[in-house]
Specification:
By secondary structure, the protein is an alpha/beta fold. The protein is built from 5 helices and 7 strands. The protein has a single domain, classed as CBS-domain. Helix 4 packs antiparallel against helix 5.
Length: 139
């Protein structure tokens, strides 16, 4: 049996927050979409990073930033990604290695989706789910 591919479990067509969009807009988009992270995309539409709700609160508001400041100011650089045709096991390994719970999914250089630990956990056999949760809980 062929390994499950990331494209089979990802959420397709994620909404991006622009590098020049405000933190308020990012928070509004997250609330509207009921998600905890958004890809940050530049004016060229390419992936520049990922912004989480935790970034907005801890690295933004708690550090004295205002909600009218831009999402790009909180960007921590190039995001860890996974390929759409990579296996779910590869996605899990990347999440563990990079200590992240969400990954942008790319097809070539195009952002095509987002995959979360929840998506991966639902696709894995029960013993592997426990390994993923344990690995991401450390640190």
């Amino acid at each position: 049996m062929a390994a499950t591919k990331v494209r089979e479990i990802m959420t397709p067509d994620p909404r991006c927050v622009g590098t020049d969009d405000s933190l308020q807009k990012a928070a509004d988009l997250m609330a509207a979409d009921r998600v905890g992270a958004l890809p940050i995309c530049g004016q060229d539409g390419r992936l520049k990073g990922v912004l989480t709700d935790r970034d907005i609160v801890v690295r933004g508001l708690a550090a004295g930033k205002r909600l009218d400041e831009t999402a790009g100011e909180l960007n921590q650089g190039e995001a860890a990604t996974v390929g759409a045709d990579d296996s779910v096991d590869e996605a899990m390994a990347t999440m563990v290695e990079k200590h992240v719970k969400r990954l942008p999914v790319i097809d070539g250089t195009t952002l095509v989706g987002m995959v979360t630990t929840g998506d991966v956990a639902r696709a894995l056999p029960d013993p592997d789910v426990g390994d993923l949760i344990e690995a991401l809980s450390v640190g």
